[in-house]
Amino acid sequence: MTEQIDEGLRSELQRQGIWVTSMQELYNWGRQNSIWPLQFGLACCAIEMIATAASRYDIARFGGEVFRPSPRQADLMIVAGTVTKKMAPQIVRLYNQMPDPKYVISMGACAISGGPFKQGYNVLKGIDRYIPVDVYIPGCPPRPEALLHAFMELQRKIDSQKLTGTDKAEHLDPTQLSEFPVPAFGAHDLEPPANPDVFHPLKMERQG
Amino acid sequence: MESLDEIKARAESAVPGAKIDIVPNPGPSKQSSLLLDNEHASAIARFLCDDPALRLDFCSNATGVDWLGRTVKKTVKVKKVVDGIEKEVDETTEEFFPGYLEAIYHLYSITHKHGPVIIRMRTADRAAGAPLPSLTPIWRSAEFQEREIFDLYGVRFDGHPDLRRILMWDEFEDYPMRKDYREPDDYEFEPTPHDDVLEKAKQHYRPRPQLDGAENITPRNEAETLKG
After folding, report:
1. How many CA atoms lie within 13 A of A65 on its CB side?
2. CA distance A104 to A111
3. Is residue A1's pLDDT more than 60?
4. For residues B70 and B95, what is the distance between their CA atoms, to the nearest angstrom?
5. Which among B52, B54, B7, B4 is positioned nearest to B32, based on CA atoms?
6. Residues paired with B155 in a beta bridge
7. Residue B131 touches chain A, beta carbons under 8 Å
8. Which region holds residue B18: left if phi is over 0, alpha if psi is between -120 and 50, else beta?
9. A30 close contact with B: CB closer than 8 A
10. pLDDT of amino acid A2
């Protein structure tokens, strides 16, 4: 483990051409620099996501340029835009089809909470009602820099994930769920309107 | 382009038995419209589309309106004999107008570059699946918009080639653009409620505890300290 190596000794060895590292560090270094996003967009945030992938902002600098058209090959789902209730089951299904380890960025006000369409009869009030979200980006839509920032936050999160121990990464823990039930189309709303295993909103004690 | 009165007169003579009303628009745009009777609507629409002087060959827009039933109160001064003396008495009469659903089409002519001519159709009532004749056979561009009216208002268009919900899922049963539609109550988690949303969110709040006056009683040891 790297924690057991003295940092001074490590840099001294490095100067002599000896690189000392750990499995966890190497593994996470590899993973965090080749995050393959799933290629799909839902609304105007997708345009900003496309701009992030294009040459001016160039997400390739962070190893995320390989947008995959298949969920089977993707590590990261960028929920970019308004999730309508009609689209929500498909998003959950795509998430379920992604292999572990998988991450979700909820991009923009709509994907976080429904945004300006929150009170609409047809808009899901945040994708975190059905799938776990790792990074939220506020904005309407967020600028490409914000998406890059979220991407770097995700890289930091991946870097901090442990391979062993009780606090090891979720995808290494077989007891942790990696698939979630797909909501069904009901007569008045999606059934269920939120998955209580996933959706843990802040408890608000307000008095009427 | 001819005036609406002229269009109305020519259409009524071209389609025997047709009855067209002019719905005036007092607003600044003055876009008054023709109200077609449902029985002859297809024939009148065909006339508007094919007539060489009009050639309204392009339906740019079709939309729906939900009109709730309403009661109109009218106060009329009536002369009445009260206690042997003739007096002017206010008499209030209430008249109930039943609600209906309306489909509105905006027509233009690409050939003559004129328009819009606005036509309306009204259902008999606000029941789910209230029928109207479909104008898709005449203007193909109305197909998706009539589906949308069907989806959101619940108007059934007879003669439509493919009448299904277009925006909501097939299992959905409500008509969300109707004025009496109530969305699912999903307001228990609202970080920053305001206005209408605040009223809805408040229904999920814990009721304020009833005060019984006990908070006004000074605790004993505190009272003793005060005494010194």
Report:
1. 11
2. 11
3. no
4. 8
5. B4
6. B130
7. no
8. beta
9. no
10. 47
Quick one: which of B180, B143, B184, B138 has its CA closest to B160? B143
- Find all residues with CB under 8 Å of A67, minimum gap 6, and list them: A36, A37, A38, A39, A53
Q: What is the pLDDT of residue A146?
A: 95
- What ipTM was estimated for this complex? 0.78
| Min distance B96 CA to chain A CA atoms (Å) | 31
Helix H or strand E encompassing B108:
strand B100-109
Task: Among A125, A185, A206, select the one facing B171 at the smallest CB separation.
Answer: A185
As a three-state string, the secondary structure of chain A is CHHHCCHHHHHHHHHCCCCCCCHHHHHHHHHHCCCCEECCCCCHHHHHHHHHHCCCCCHHHHCCCCCECCHHHCCEEEEECCCECCCHHHHHHHHHHCCCCCEEEEEHHHHHHCHHHCCCCCECCCHHHCCCCCEEECCCCCCHHHHHHHHHHHHHHHHCCECCCCCECHHHCCCCCCCCCCCEECCCCEECCCCCCCCCCCCCCCEC
DSSP 8-state class, residue B125: S
Indicate which of A119, A123, A198, A200 best probes the interface with B, i.e. most B CBs within 10 Å of its own CB. Answer: A119
| Residue-wise pLDDT tens digits, B68-85 | 998 888 888 887 787 778
Tokens of B4: 């609406």
Residues of B in contact with A186 (CB under 8 A): 171
What is the SS3 assignment for B142? helix
The HSE-up count of residue A203 (CA atoms within 13 Å, CB side) is 2
The helix (run of H) or strand (run of E) holding residue B106 is: strand B100-109
Residues A2-21 pLDDT 10s: 457 788 888 999 999 998 88
| CB A58, CB A50: distance < 8 Å | no
pLDDT at B90: 83
Write out residues in chain B with pLDDT < 50, as ranges.
none
A203 interfacial to chain B (CB closer than 8 Å): no
Report helix, strand or coil for B93.
strand
Question: CA torsion angle for A165, A171, A173, A176 (degrees, to 10)?
Answer: 130
Q: What are phi and psi of B24, to 5 degrees?
A: -75, 150
